Amino acid sequence: MKHFCLGILFISILSAAANPLSAQTARVLRDDLAIKPFFRIEGTDTQTRIEYDASDKSFYTIAWSGDLFHLTPNGEGNYTIERLASAQDHGINYLQGLALHDGSVYLAGNVVIAQGVSGYGKAVKAKLTAGKLVWTEIFKTAEHASSKTLFDHAFSAICFSPDGKDMYIASGSRTDHGEVKDNEGRYPGLREVPLTACIFKIPANTENLQLPNDSAALAPYVHVRGVRNAFSLAFAANGDLFSVENSGDRDDPEEMNWIRPGAHYGFPWEMGGNDTPMQFAGYKPDDDKLINRNYTAYQIGAFHDDKQYPQKPKNLTFRKPIRNAGPDADMYRDPTTGKVMDASENGTTIGTFTAHRSPLGLVFDLKSGFGGDYKGKGFVLNFQEGSATYGPMQDPGQDLLMLDLKKNTAGDDYTLNTYRIAADFVQPTDAEIVDHKLYVLEGQGQIWEITFPKKEEEVVTGMEPSRNAFSVYPNPIRGKMQVEGPLTQQNVQMTVTDITGRALIREERQMNGKTELDVSKLPAGTYLLQVESRKQQVTTRFIVNP
Q1: Which of 133, 163, 243, 500 has the maximum number of C-beta atoms within 10 A of its C-beta?
Q2: CA distance linking residue 68 with residue 65, whole number of Å
Q3: Residue 26: CA atoms inside 13 Å, Cβ hemisphere, count?
Q4: How far apart are CA 212 and CA 234, in angstroms?
Q5: How many alpha carbons lie under 13 Å from residue 218 in its C-beta half-sphere?
Q6: How far is the C-alpha of 256 from the C-alpha of 265, rounded, in Å?
Q7: Class of residue 286 by CB neighbours under 10 A (exposed 0-12, middle 13-18, buried 19+)
Q8: Mind listing the pLDDT tens digit for each residue in 476-534?
Q9: Whole-angstrom distance, CA of residue 442 vs CA of residue 50
Q10: pLDDT in tens, 447-473
Q11: Which of 366, 377, 375, 382 is nearest to 402 (CA)?
C-alpha cells in the first residue's frame, strides 16, 4: 500500500492473485501472545477500518466502495454480519474513515464526481438505532481537482479528542512529492491545493459545514499542514495526538508525528526527515541514490529538474518526525552510496519507519488493559510486503509493531523504539483494542484476534474495603514513585523485589495518605512493590524505564 487510496483496490487484486490468502497465516513472534482467526467478511471490496462498540460488544467495518458492515455476537460464540449501508445511502463512494462517538457512527471520504477528473470531501454521521440509519452531513468541501494518479490520497482518518468536544479528520495529498499534477493538461501547473495535505479540527457537533478550497477561509478549521497522508490518527493515554503516514515513491522513511496545533510537518519540502531534492536547482534524478526505479513516480517522469518548484516558505519551522531507534523497522538507504543500512546497528536513528512500509492502524493501550511489557504501549500495522525490488527495503513488512514512545525531559519531543510482535498478515489495514485483545483487519476481509497478557491486578488482603487500597504512580517510572493510601496515619512497610523475589528496597515509615519511594537507583526492568500495613497488604508490579 504505497498509496493507500484510489490505487489500493488494484494493488490488492494483483497481490491476491500472486499470493492467495490461504498461502499465508498470521503468526505472533512472542511466546506470551496468542493469535487466531476471529471472523472473515466474504465477498467484500477492500476493507479499510474496524471499530468496536462496547455498548453491545459488536464491531463495525467499512469497505473502500462505501459499504458499512455490522458484526454482532449471536450468543453462540460467533458473530453475525449485516451490511448496514452503502454509498447509495450516505453518498460517499470512496470511503476511508470510520469512527464511533456518542452513540453515532461517523464516516469520511470523497465523492468522486467524474472518475479521474474531480470530486469533493465529505463526512456524515448517523445515530445507531435499531431502525434505518438516517444520515446527517457534517461537512462537504468545494469540488477540487483529481490528479488522475495513485497520489489522490483523499479524506481518510477520523478521531475524537479525549473530551469528545472536537473531531480530527485527515486529508491526504494529491501529489507524490509536490510535483505538478495537471491531469493531462486539464489543470495547468496545479500541485497541492488548500484542501489537501492537512488535518482538520472541527467541533464534534458540527453539521452542514461548507469547506471552500481557499486557504484563508479554511484557516479556522486547519489544525496542521504538511502531512502527506496521515492515514491513521490516535490519541495516547496522556492526551497527545499522533499520526502515521507513508512518504512518497522515493526511499524516504515513513513518518510518525506528534501532532501539535498550528504546526507544519514539512510536506512537500521534507519527508521522513529528508529534503525533497527536486526543490533544488540542477537536480538529476539518475544521480539520486534514494530514487526507487520500480515505483510509479519515477516511471512516469515525476522526478526531474523542476525550475518552477515552489521554494520552502521563509520563517516557517517544520516539525520533524519522531526518531526511531529500532531495533525493528529502521532500515534506511545511505544517500551517498545507496546501500541499505540498519539504523540501530549503526548507532543512529531514522524518522520514523523503513521506507514503503505504509504504516496504518495506529492504536494505543489507553486503559492499560495489557500486562507485562505491553502495558500502555502503542501499536501500528504495516500494509506493504517487503521484496527485493518493491516495498520495505530488506524489511518484511505486513506486520504489527509495538511502539515504546518516550517523551524527553523538556517535554517537547519523543523518541521511539519499535519491536515486531506479529507477522505474515495479508495487507492489514486497521487495528482495534478491546480489553486485553487486539484485532487486526486485513483488506480482503479476514479479522485476526491477538490475545495479550492481562494486566497484573493488585492483590489486596485484609479487611479494609478496596476503595482504601494503596496505589502507585506513575508506572512506568524513573526517579521517585508516589504511593497513595487511606487518609489515616499508619505505619507501613514497603518492600521492592525483582522478579526472582530478591529484596532490593525495604523501608518502614509513617504514612498519612501519600508518600514517596525513591527507585532511581534501580536498573531498568520489572519489579514488585509490596505495601503492608496492620490491616492490609498490597502487591503490585511496576516498570523502571531506562
Answers
A1: 243
A2: 9
A3: 27
A4: 26
A5: 24
A6: 10
A7: exposed
A8: 787 888 887 765 667 888 899 887 778 899 998 888 778 888 998 898 888 888 888 77
A9: 10
A10: 999 999 988 654 444 434 344 456 777
A11: 377
